[in-house]
Amino acid sequence: MGDRMNLLITEDDKADFLLVESHLKKHGLDIRCRQAASMEDLAAALDEGSWDAVLSDFSIPGMEFRETLALIKERLPNVPIILVSGSIGDEMAVDLLKEGLWDFVLKDNLARLVPALERGLREAAETRARRDAESALQESRATLQSFYDSSSLMMGVAELDGEDIIAVYGNASAGRFFQFGTEKISGRTAIELGIPPEVNRLWLEHIRHCWNEGAPIRFEYEHPAPWGKQWLAATVAFIGEGRRGRPRFSFVAEDITEHKKLEEQLLQSQKIEAIGLLAGGVAHDFNNILSAIVGYAQLTQMKMQEDDPLRSYIEHILESCNRASVLTQSLLAFSRKQPIRLEAIDLNEVIRKFEKFLLRLIREDIAFKTACAKTPLFAMADKGQVEQVLMNLATNARDAMPNGGKLLIETKIATLHQEFIKAHGYGKTGEYAVIEVSDTGTGMDARTRGRIFEPFFTTKESGKGTGLGLSMAYGIVKKHDGFINVYSEPGKGTTFNIYLPLIRVERESEQRKEEDAMPPRGGMETILVAEDDAALRRLNKATLSHFGYTIIEAIDGADAVARFLENREIIRLVILDGIMPKMNGKEAYREIKAMRPELKCIFMSGYSEDIFGKEDL
Ligand code: ADP
Ligand code: MG
User: Fold this and answer.
1) Whose CA is closest to atom 21 on ligand 1?
2) DSSP at 332
């Protein structure tokens, strides 16, 4: 034995104590013995500290052995206690062993003492080791359990039994999800736990696949939980054989509903953005072509006699051009390329003035009402475009109420908090002017609702709908730094909410003066005109020449600078297109201005935001 052993010997007879001690030492045990000769002495000895074993006489003064045994057992659990006595009856011996005595040795047969002591010590050591292992196991189990139960992921183990998935274990999150206590999950089939059959089939499919392939598998699906649909991402992995050789799986499932919502919104806005770019690009070129047609038609008109019989043809051309232009404006509004004129306007006033017009748009069988907030609702907005949005929403409402109904336009102030943004996945905190447009029409199902802002999405028969109304509204609202949302269900009508950032205005801003009210007079000066589109260049030249000016043409920005250098003495004005190859209008202007700072310049572009910052204009 390694360390010296501490033995407590309860024995009132000193001679017997010495006898036992010397016997043990004689047999080579490295021991330190302490005698406890009375009840008080024993109590003191127990307080003293660590004992490896206790040898006890049957009785010490003041105490029965049974009491001694009970006391020692209580104070020194798992320490071997061996009775060393003169004689002991069999029955008594059996009783004492039952009460926790480890062994007994008769004083006249001390030869048994050493083996008995060694066996007791060995057993005590084994018990200690087993208990340590057990408590370590218990601790690690508790750690794992709290780890599983504190997770927001649903985790568990299940087995496959034919068509049944049988739960073996589920953590607290899984318990909450199934609305079953975790202890009650075990042994139940997925169907019993309330998993709908179609979901059960889906899991079966993936579990089988995972089993065949031998690799974990992840899948996402929409779970029709009783409290609403929920997107889950699940991973299953084969972890060996379970009861009766059934394949056993671990599963982890995560609620990804929030994530999905954001993803869908992102996809949607990207799609709209992409189509917007495309539509905007086409509209841009088409607008140039249209400008040329309009220009030449107007020139022709100017050169015609008042009574020319062809005059009406030109008027028809111009009228058609006007219609085409409205269409491109819609595309541009949607694609956000149309320049907007932001002013501080009171939305209540816009609505009040536009009401009469809207009334004409809808039918008599529709009751139209407006309810404006008591205080003015100022926003930085383009009045024409706000009217456009109202018009689009009103016509949609009209179309959704073929048998009549009610249309209501309300305004109010709303303060958006963080919670709104979290719930909807968009928006910025702050105060907003809200225009709410509700109808009592057919409403929409989720599928339709999810696509209405897509350009060209329409449920109307061909010829009746363009599918541009709401995408336009979306583009316009976006451009105003606002947002638009919809609440609608089949049969329950539809409500659109438009949020525009609210501004505080003391006094209504002054109306802009109309600058182009006076008819053009013309002049004799020389003008440098830079324009990359050949048709527009010719048109500009024709128009300006018509009013008497001399024109020097340039085909791009760099060419404009070169032409200016050649003709710097005679040029009185420069007209530059905003976007041109090689050098854009702004850059060309900088170079020319450096040569003649006082020279005036006019920029021509429908797309001011493309190239000019506010500080340039
Ligand atoms: P369009 O009116 O040309 O079909 P919109 O972009 O204006 O194009 O609308 C797209 C679709 O959205 C409509 O075809 C319709 O299905 C749906 N919708 C729009 N507004 C409403 C409404 N108030 N009630 C029911 N459905 C609507
Ligand atoms: Mg429409």
Assistant:
1) 396
2) H
What residue has token string 């060309």? 588
Q: Kindly state the average pLDDT of the residues 20-43.
A: 92
Q: Is 467 exposed, middle or buried (0-12, 13-18, 19+ CB in 10 A)?
A: middle
pLDDT tens-digit profile of 125-139? 999 999 999 999 999
Which residues are registered as beta bridge partners of 494? 439, 488
Mean pLDDT for the stretch of residues 163-186? 88
Q: Residue 529: which H helix or E strand, with range?
A: strand 526-530
Pick from 177, 158, 146: which is nearest to 257 by CA?
177
**Which of 331, 361, 458, 494 maximizes ligand 1 atoms within 8 Å of its Cβ, making it the mutation to test the pocket?**
458
Cα dihedral: 270, 276, 277, 280 (round 10)? -170
The whole-number pLDDT of residue 506 equals 57
Give residue-wise pLDDT tens across range 266-288: 777 667 767 777 777 788 788 88
In sign, the C-alpha dihedral spanning 422, 426, 430, 434 is negative
Q: Which range among 35-44, 97-106, 405-414, 470-479 has the greatest average pLDDT?
A: 405-414
Contact assessment for residue 451 and residue 457, using Cβ atoms and an 8 Å cutoff: yes
The amino acid at 162 = G
Q: What type of residue sits at position 472?
A: M
Ligand 1: which of 388, 393, 395, 396 to mutate, judged by most atoms within 8 Å of the beta carbon? 396
Element (H, E) at 229: strand 228-241
